[in-house]
Design goal:
- The protein has 247 residues and is of the alpha+beta class.
- It folds into two domains: 178 residues, Alpha-Beta Plaits, CATH 3.30.70; 60 residues.
- 27% of the residues lie in helices and 30% in strands.
- The protein is built from four helices and eleven strands.
- The strands form three sheets. Strands 1-7-3-6-4-5 form a six-stranded antiparallel β-sheet.
- A hairpin with a 4-residue loop joins strand 9 and strand 10.
- Helix 1 runs antiparallel to helix 3.
- The termini are far apart.
């Protein structure tokens, strides 16, 4: 059976998020003829920063260029080995379709076990030693590129929805939407602009105070930090240590 309304269901979740300020999770189920939606409480990934918030210095507003959709694939089969093989088959189908897609890619795959920690495995071998699992599910991370001057999470949901509508699920399989988030794929390309901001300020202070002071700057190559401004824009900034010394 085709997942023929996954896009509508995911869109409904996003509308509820926008109205309530909370996230929900979409449960897509192929049994009884149509998918269904069940709200669950995953954590909120992107939080709107108040307009009155004071942003740190040495920063830039940067638009996200990648959206990620986290999915959980489970099976209701009672036999452990059969359940895991079914999940494996669905994962393989999704991976093969993503390999042929220009819009969606599979970024990562992990196995979730009840009562045990998750273990990263390859899609082709994650169900090995399946007799030792009491219950398991596969968690997939799908990604798509955000394009244009005003990237939107809603646009990425349309892309993900179109992709999910292209494959058929067994009656025993459920795909749950756990979260959707955006990110900057390569924040390091902005580092030189942030370092330039630091030196511009230091040079201005040096010009104002002359040779009476010197400056010691540390942390220019420490990890970049970010604050979410909207669901698709971040404030990327550098937090150096600047020590002013009297000459």
């Amino acid at each position: 059976m085709m997942i023929n309304r996954s896009l509508i269901l995911i869109f409904a979740v996003v509308v509820m998020v926008a109205c309530s300020g909370r996230t929900g999770s979409t449960l897509l189920n192929s049994r009884e003829g149509e998918p269904t939606i069940t709200p669950t409480p995953p954590k909120l990934e992107n939080i709107q920063v108040s307009q009155t918030s004071v942003l740190p210095p040495y920063g830039l507003r940067v638009k996200a260029d990648v959206a990620s959709l986290k999915l959980r694939v489970t099976s209701s089969e009672e036999d452990t080995q059969a359940r895991l093989i079914t999940i494996q088959t669905v994962v393989d189908d999704i991976t093969k379709l993503a390999d042929k897609s220009d819009a969606v890619a599979v970024q990562s795959l992990s196995v979730s076990q009840i009562g045990a920690s998750s273990a990263e495995r390859e899609a082709s071998s994650y169900y090995y030693d399946s007799q030792s699992y009491d219950s398991a599910s596969a968690i997939l991370m799908l990604t798509t590129t955000l394009a244009g001057d005003n990237p939107s999470v809603l646009e990425s949901l349309i892309t993900f929805g179109d992709f999910l509508n292209t494959f058929t699920l067994p009656e025993t399989v459920t795909i749950s939407t756990l979260s959707i988030e955006t990110r900057i794929s390569d924040p390091e390309i902005y580092r030189h602009q942030l370092i330039e901001q630091v030196y511009q300020e230091v040079e201005a202070l040096q010009a104002a105070r002359g040779d009476t002071v010197t400056f010691e700057i540390n942390g220019l190559y420490s990890g970049l930090k970010s604050l979410p401004l909207t669901d698709s824009e971040y404030y990327l900034y550098l937090d150096p240590s600047i020590v002013v010394k009297d000459s």
